[in-house]
Amino acid sequence: MNWTPWKSLLVNVQGEIGRNSNPFTPVAERDYHAIDGRLRYTRKKFRWSAAYKENYNNNSIAVTSFSSKSRNYSTNATFTGTSWMSIDAGYSKLHLATVGGIAFFAGAGRPALNQGVSVYVSNIHAANLGVRLNWRAAELYLGESITKDAGDGRATNALGGTAIANLLYSVQTFPLTYHSPNARLSIRLAEKLRFNAGYQYYGYHEDFGLLGVEQNYRANTGYAGMQFSF
């Protein structure tokens, strides 16, 4: 469905539903539905959009099972302001939860064929902001980007129980944070000659890593150069 309640606003909604009485594979779409909705508003030098997307699939066959649920929320805004300033900003959240069956074919005292399950949960928040400023012969861009996966909410990855339980528990979620501000300056020295300089910071941090091994790093990068066009 497309709907334009007034000239500046556009609404788009899509949906799909499906049923399969005899799925052949665990990931087949046995019982699923999908929703996709979008809004877009434009007013002179301002543009705003928002979206929601949902995809659920539940399946279960004789040998194993599968379930996947994802929801995505997002919004973006752009303001050109004046000839010397523009702003871009955005935010999105992605929720994903999957459960899949595990088949054990070997090993003494193994569980029944379809009793094991593999779980993965992710809750990603991502935001970005960019500001562009122009002064005659100079252009300055300031940006910020941050991504955080809150995982399933656990504070630690404490292990306990059997070796199989420990392995499955340690890979069910990966909470982390990525942070990267940046700045760029461009100065026109002549009609076809510009001086460019920039800086960007990279920061990556895992709340806890696979089997207790965390991968954390940070870096500072910068550059400067001349640009000639012809």
Your description of this structure?
Helices cover 3% and strands 66% of the residues. With 230 residues, it is mainly β. A hairpin with a 2-residue loop joins strand 3 and strand 4.
Q: Provide the residue-averaged pLDDT.
A: 87
Beta-strand content estimate: over 45%
Q: Kindly name the structural category.
A: mainly beta
By DSSP (H or I, 4+ residues per run), the number of helices equals 1
Shape, please? Answer: flat
Percent range for helical residues? Answer: under 10%
Low-confidence stretches: none
Number of strands: 12
Distance between the ends? 49 Å
Which value, in Å, is the CA radius of gyration?
25 Å
Task: Describe the sheet with the most strands.
Answer: 12 strands, antiparallel
What is the string of helix and strand elements?
A: EEEEEEEEHEEEE
